[in-house]
Write a structure and sequence with these properties.
This protein is α+β, with helices and mostly antiparallel strands and about 80 residues long. The chain has two helices and five strands; from the N terminus they run H-H-E-E-E-E-E. Strands 1-2-3-4-5 form a five-stranded antiparallel beta sheet. A hairpin with a 2-residue loop joins strand 2 and strand 3.
């Protein structure tokens, strides 16, 4: 797998839409990459913790044809 494929796979949760209320509570998500990412609430922000770095959710609940998108302010890296 190329590094780009690994990076992209960290940003997709297959098979389910995850609403932001579930992210606020903190959860573990298994993305396509097979490496779990976790979420946590810090003050009013939702933080997504990847294997080597973290990102803040900046836009929540963008409805797409195949699920929900939550935009983050950084690229999660393997």
């Amino acid at each position: 797998i190329s590094v780009l494929t690994e990076i992209l796979a960290l940003h997709v949760k297959p098979g389910a839409s995850v609403p932001s209320v579930q992210l606020i509570r903190g959860t573990t998500l298994p993305p396509l990459a097979g490496i779990d990412i976790t979420t946590e609430r810090m003050d009013k922000d939702i933080i997504v913790n990847g294997p080597t770095n973290s990102a803040k959710v900046v836009i929540r609940e963008l409805q797409a044809n195949n699920g929900i998108i939550h935009a983050i302010d950084d690229v999660l890296l393997p």
